[in-house]
Amino acid sequence: MKAAIIQFPGSNRDTDMAHALSLVTGYAPRMIWHGETALPPLDLIVLPGGFSYGDYLRAGAIAARSPILDAIRTQAERGVAVLGVCNGFQILTEAQLLPGGLMRNASLKFVCRTVQLQVENNRTPFTSRFLPNQIIDCPVAHHDGNYFADPRTLAALEENGQIVFRYANGTNPNGSINDIAGVTNRQGNVLGLMPHPENLVEPSQGGTNGRPLFESILDNLS
Amino acid sequence: MNIKACITVTLKNGVLDPQGQAIRQALNSLDFPGIGSVRQGKVFDITLEDTSEPDAEKLLQDMCEKLLANTVIEDYTVRIIR
Q: Would you list the DSSP string of A98-127?
């Protein structure tokens, strides 16, 4: 499997993501700087968590206008899988590769805690190893995870099964509409989520609940 | 001519603005009377060189659409000062 992790100024979960991908899939990803304008042929592109450009203007806004984004857009349109976690999710919405937007948490507080995450759709290349409606404990760490979409977009997301992860059992940490934690594009090859499955892939991290995501990637993309 | 403009970006009506709400509560606690609502936003003061007013207007709109506002959640207004 050929995977790449895009590094932006202020990315800070890039090495966690590289570790998780290497550990679970056995394939080490390439690390690619955001200033590049071309990408090699890939099976998976990952936009990692962090605080690209210090969240200036809006979280992910400046990174979404990086030179590398045109190449990511081209590959995404060809069906290459794209995964954005946390800041990566924010960048994907800002780049309009995913619908909706991520706003300041309703509490106005940075949240760093474990939430319960329900897998709403396990028929994606990223979630096929999860059980239907499986609920896992998973960490979140963000200030701008309050997902918003207008009623029409929201109805389409619900109808098309594009809502892949939802916060469960009253653990919504940010006021996100319909408890949305992760969505795909209409085609299903671009996924963004706020929680951090890459930080739960071996027992020393406190659990392995995040592994099925990477096992799904290995099954479907290699 | 050189043109000065002021762009204001705020959350759309109907989008929850918790910062605006917190500010309204603080204003209430300072006993300011009759506050209906407060919406917080951003202001960009931009100067453009060697342009005309119609060209500047177009350029500034384009800046808002492409970067300064996220039109999924935000509205913007462009005001040319001179």
A: SSSEEE--TT-S-EEEEEEEEES---STTT
